[in-house]
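Notebook entry, structure prediction.
Reason for the run: the old model in the group folder had no record of what sequence produced it. Starting over properly, with the input documented here first.
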Amino acid sequence: MNIRVATKADAAAMVEFNQAMALETEGKQLSEDILSKGVAAVFGDPQKGFYVVADNDSQIVGGLMVTFEWSDWRNGWFWWIQSVYIRPEMRGRSLYSKLYDFVKTRAGEAGNVCGFRLYVEKDNEHAQAVYEKSGWSGRII
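New structure, fully documented this time:
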């Protein structure tokens, strides 16, 4: 399993994952056209954020997006973890923990990250349990 920053070549997987996550967690059908443009916008503008993927033998099996929020109180950046998705057949293998560890390492290298925040649906108790098991110490919204 290779955890890495996503490239534009991974955009289709990010679209697929976002569509699947929205349907699974909120029962929403997302417009593929709008979503594709939104994902492309992240790849086109590093100030919007970046994606991290789990690559298993050249197949993307999980991913997440990191976006940024400036904190004047802390004179640093919060990194928001969003759009987390793991293919169902790959769940239960600590992939989220590996993705999160990768993000924490990148934040340490950046040197100006003061904390993490995570968006998760309040009714998604399974995801919350996964995050807590992974040692999540940030703020879950």
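Summary: The mean pLDDT is 90.
The old model has been moved to the deprecated folder.
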